[in-house]
Amino acid sequence: MNMELSRRTFLKTSGAGLAGTTLGAFGFSEAEAAVAAAVKPFHLVNTTEARNTCTYCSVACGIIIYSKGDLKKGEKADIVHIEGDADHPTNRGTLCPKGSALRDIVKSQTRLTQPMLRKAGSDTFEAVSWDVALDKIARAMKDDRDANFVATNADGVTVNRWLTTGFLAASATTNETAFATYKVVRSTGILAFDNQARV
Amino acid sequence: MSQDLKPDPTVIGAVSAPPFAVLPDPARLFGVRAKRLRTYAAVSPLKPYLDFVAGLIEAQQAIVPTLPPVEAPAPEKLERVRAFEMPALERATTLLDDTLEATLDQLFDAAARVPMPEEAAAALTRVRLADGPVRAQMVRDVLAHDLPVERLAEHVYVAAGLQVHFARRAAALEAKKLVPVGDGVCPCCGGPPVASLIVEWPNAHGNRFCACSLCSTLWHYVRIRCCACGTTKGIGYQEIEGSPGTVKAETCDECHTYVKVMYQNKDVTIEPVADDIGTLGLDLMMRQGPYRRAAFNPFLLGY
């Protein structure tokens, strides 16, 4: 069966080429007009369903994120629901209790949305810019590495280890991101490194 | 503690292993559909039409037990279409055989008892008189979706008869032997879907099935994917503001069409054909947008 041909014929009948409708042909034009009048005061709203990966752990379950509002039209989209992706081979629609509560994490008032710093001697966190945060992390890492780097072992063999710092990278990354993370972190000498949060 | 009382975590929660296809049950199919239409008729401004279609579908149900049995395709033919990923029931070679003749005759007789406006009654009279080559041509045109505007009503009666015929033919097949034949194409009869359903079954939790407009077979189809062209890019969902969110228009920015998606997991009484007709208001609103209707429903042509 030539589906391409069939589909074209079908589009012809369902599109502008067809003046009449089934309702008109059967003599129900008034009922159709009544429906048109009934829906007139209403608007259409756009919702989106997007596939994504759960951010919690290395199982990387598929999720579907439902949001209201159309980003393509410049509207603000708002997440209204998150559920397991029934088509995903890993979890087939199921989610663990933490995954089931993902929407509450997104909406949580205590959710971390920017770098926070608690200065020495202070008892509160304050918001800082990413530049400040990254500079501070880099300084701390550099100081720690300079102080504790192990270039050679007791036998004088070069080992280049940095054992006093660990690194935990995110789940839901691509293979490429994981590869780049590994190369960067291992090149500093860090051994305590996990590329997916196994929590 | 006895052996039996040990906890077995493997039985907690069913793993979703949806079947590829679910064949229709002609003994119930049309009755459920008509009942759903009557539910819509009680609250919809489309009541006159919904009552008429419900009557027609009740006639479809009424004739099912009295029809002669349908012939299943030959096993070697089924093997061949399976090997070449073709629909199990071929449309192009569907002939006006004695069984189909009997189906159409009985349906037209039963339909005559449904209250209807003059136009519909006149069309029914004309289609009852048409026989032989004229009727065979109408069958071919309906199966090819090549419906002439000026004789649309007659062809819709024939389409209703073909729905009964193909549902019975599909029911005689083996669901496990069906194979995917293409995006948005029924594995039984090669037709486009009337809508898609998000289901909540014991073996399918939140999976999506397309519903065939001709033979009412349900086939598994990945969610958030265009039912007409198969793309996963630029899919949106439009619904009437303030509606319960059970029927939405799944729009595609690649082929600029939409097919309704129905959340049967939120409302178990949803029936694809009935709800498609019952939500005509959504189609009328979608008409003003850039998307065209890609679904096929003989009772809702021209939108």
TrEMBL record, chain A:
TM ranges: none
Superkingdom, taxonomy of origin: Bacteria
InterPro entries for the chain: Mopterin_OxRdtase (IPR006656), Mopterin_OxRdtase_4Fe-4S_dom (IPR006963), MopterinOxRdtase_cofactor_BS (IPR027467), TAT_signal (IPR006311), TAT_signal_bac_arc (IPR019546)
Oxidoreductase is among the record's keywords: yes
PROSITE patterns: 4FE4S_MOW_BIS_MGD, MOLYBDOPTERIN_PROK_1, TAT
Keywords for the protein's UniProt record, in alphabetical order: 4Fe-4S, Iron, Iron-sulfur, Metal-binding, Molybdenum, Oxidoreductase
Biological process according to GO: anaerobic respiration
Localization (cell): Cell envelope
Ranges of residues in domain 4Fe-4S Mo/W bis-MGD-type: 47-110
Cofactor(s) of this protein: [4Fe-4S] cluster; Mo-bis(molybdopterin guanine dinucleotide)
Molecular functions (GO terms): 4 iron, 4 sulfur cluster binding; electron transfer activity; molybdenum ion binding; oxidoreductase activity
GO annotations of cellular component type: cell envelope
Family: Belongs to the prokaryotic molybdopterin-containing oxidoreductase family.
Name by which UniProt lists this protein: Formate dehydrogenase (Quinone-dependent) catalytic subunit
Organism, as annotated: Ancylobacter rudongensis
Lineage: Bacteria, Pseudomonadati, Pseudomonadota, Alphaproteobacteria, Hyphomicrobiales
TrEMBL record, chain B:
Keyword DNA repair: no
Domain BEACH: 1-119
One Gene Ontology CC term in the entry: cytosol
The UniProt record lists the keyword Transcription: no
UniProt record similarity statement: Belongs to the FdhE family.
NCBIfam families (UniProt xref): FdhE
Protein name: Protein FdhE homolog
Source organism (scientific name): Ancylobacter rudongensis
Lineage per the UniProt record: Bacteria, Pseudomonadati, Pseudomonadota, Alphaproteobacteria, Hyphomicrobiales
